[in-house]
Specification:
Layout (H helix, E strand, L loop, with lengths): L3 H12 L3 H14 L2 H23 L4 H19 L2 H29 L22
Helix pairs in contact: 2-5, 3-4
Length: 133
């Protein structure tokens, strides 16, 4: 009989074959191969962290806060409007929903509850990563 760890490894191997994981890996690869978007996200993150540290030290004027907020809103919009970043976000969301549906099945089984068909919650396919129909 297979151990729980062997079954987990088998599950991982099977998950690697799903459209959700394949889409996530493709989106990550495209993101990593795009120096423009990677640089934009890194700079956004760096600027945000620097501003947070500066705020904690004090001495930020209302004008500086307003200018920072406007600049970051513009940068954030550019990132959200980038197809590669949007595709990665969508793939990550889909993958996370898919994995949550798997976890729901495992948890339901452990608690003795009847797991929902395919792991979907309340029959709402928009809440899961798909693959059950």
């Amino acid at each position: 009989m297979a151990t729980v760890y062997e079954l987990a490894r088998n599950l991982g191997e099977e998950l690697m074959k799903t459209p959700q994981v394949e889409a996530l890996l493709e989106a990550k690869k495209a993101y990593e191969e795009s120096p423009e978007i990677a640089t934009a996200v890194e700079e956004y993150t760096r600027l945000h962290q620097e501003f947070e540290a500066k705020m904690q030290r004090g001495g930020i004027s209302a004008e500086e806060q307003r200018a920072f907020s406007e600049d970051m809103a513009k940068r954030g919009e550019e990132i959200r409007n980038n197809k590669i970043a949007a595709d990665l976000f969508a793939a990550e969301t889909n993958f996370n929903n898919f994995m949550n549906s798997i976890f729901t099945i495992v948890t339901s089984t452990l608690t003795g509850e009847e797991p929902a068909q395919g792991g979907c919650s309340s029959g709402s396919c928009s809440s899961c990563g798909g693959g059950c129909h």
